[in-house]
Structures are given as structure tokens and as C-alpha cells.
Design goal:
13% strand, binds zinc ion, alpha/beta, Lysozyme-like, five-stranded mixed beta sheet
Length: 199
């Protein structure tokens, strides 16, 4: 076989492998983009954006629920005039969609949360609550985890929030809380977020 022929064959094989790879990879690229656009739309607000510096992760410690339930509880039982303490609630399929992201009023108004005992932190941190009890039951559903990863990745990029500022409620200094529970996959979340960030 002539050298030129061999080169042509090798070149064809390389091109074939590249094309196949692209063909397989492209749908994932567009799904990733769709999710990003969806999150962007969901998080859009009509007021000036706050300068968010932290993300604090919570579980609801209940088996079911949604933003409306928790809003009522925080308004009527806790007597918090702004209601729902969190900025976002991610459903588990019991009370709202599995992986559904509900946007709280505090996010729409870009005001402080009431999700930790530290008021200074509440002013600069985005509170996200996943429905479920990850201390007593299993961790989040796959859909919840996917939604959470996309949401946190979006915030981390938009507000330049480093991984060290993505914290569990239990990491905030205050009287002990297990929130978001021992089965919350924190390390996996940070790993996923890191892999999505450009190096
Ligand atoms: Zn909490």
C-alpha cells in the first residue's frame, strides 16, 4: 500500500471517529443549553439584583410540600411578614413536581431570606430548600438533584460564587441543625458544579 493511500485511510478513520463523537455529543450540548436558558428565564427579576455571595442548602425535613405550604407556615406560624423563608423550593413529586423549581417571593423582590439564624448571612445568601427529609430518609430524587445542580451552577457563574460559599445550613455557625440531613449529597454537588465550570 502506498504511503499516500495509507494516510488517506487514516485520515478517513479519524474523521469518522470525530464525526461520530460530535453526533453523539451534540444532543447533550443542546440539552445543557436548554436547561441553562430555562433557569435563566426562571430567575429573571424585574427589580435590581442583590449582590448574592453565598448559597445555603436546606431540606424541608418533611416528606412532602411545596412553596405555598411553606409560605403559609412561615407567615402564619412563624409570623414572618415576608412569608416563605427560602428563595427557591425544589419539589420531590409529593406536593409539587419531581424536580420542579418554585421561585419564592423573596427572590422576585431580591430581598433577604429567613433561612438561617444569621441575619447578615441571610442578606447575602440565596436559600434553596429541597422537599424531603434527608436525615431520616434517602437523599434527594435524581430530578431534584439535577435541578439543584443546574440552579447552583447558574448562580455560581452569574454572581461569581466560589464553591467555598456554597454551604449546607449545618455549616453555618448557629445552634445545631442537621439540615439538609446526613444523606444530602453535598460532595457530589460540589463535584458536579466544578465539572461544569470552565477551568
Ligand atoms: Zn435549613
Amino acid at each position: 500500500m502506498k504511503i499516500v493511500e495509507r494516510h488517506v485511510i487514516i485520515f478517513s478513520i479519524v474523521m469518522f471517529i470525530t464525526a461520530t463523537g460530535l453526533f453523539i455529543y451534540l444532543p447533550f450540548l443542546s440539552v445543557e443549553r436548554e436547561v441553562t436558558i430555562h433557569i435563566e428565564e426562571l430567575c429573571r427579576v424585574d427589580v435590581e439584583e442583590n449582590e448574592w455571595e453565598y448559597v445555603v442548602l436546606h431540606h424541608s425535613a418533611t416528606e412532602e410540600g411545596n412553596a405555598d405550604n411553606f409560605d403559609r407556615y412561615h407567615r402564619e406560624e412563624k409570623k414572618w411578614s415576608h412569608g416563605l423563608a427560602y428563595h427557591f423550593v425544589i419539589g420531590n413529586g409529593n406536593g409539587s413536581g419531581n424536580g420542579e423549581i418554585e421561585v419564592g417571593d423573596r427572590w422576585k423582590k431580591q430581598i433577604h431570606g429567613a433561612h438561617t439564624a444569621n441575619m447578615d448571612l441571610n442578606r447575602i445568601s440565596i436559600g434553596i430548600c429541597l422537599v424531603g427529609n434527608f436525615e431520616e430518609d434517602n437523599g434527594p430524587t435524581d430530578n431534584q438533584f439535577k435541578s439543584l445542580t443546574s440552579l447552583v451552577a447558574y448562580f455560581s457563574k452569574r454572581y461569581n460564587i466560589p464553591n467555598s460559599h456554597i454551604v449546607k445550613h449545618s455549616q453555618v455557625l448557629q445552634k445545631g441543625t442537621a439540615c439538609p440531613g446526613k444523606n444530602f449529597p453535598y460532595r457530589q454537588l460540589i463535584k458536579e458544579i466544578s465539572s461544569l465550570q470552565p477551568l
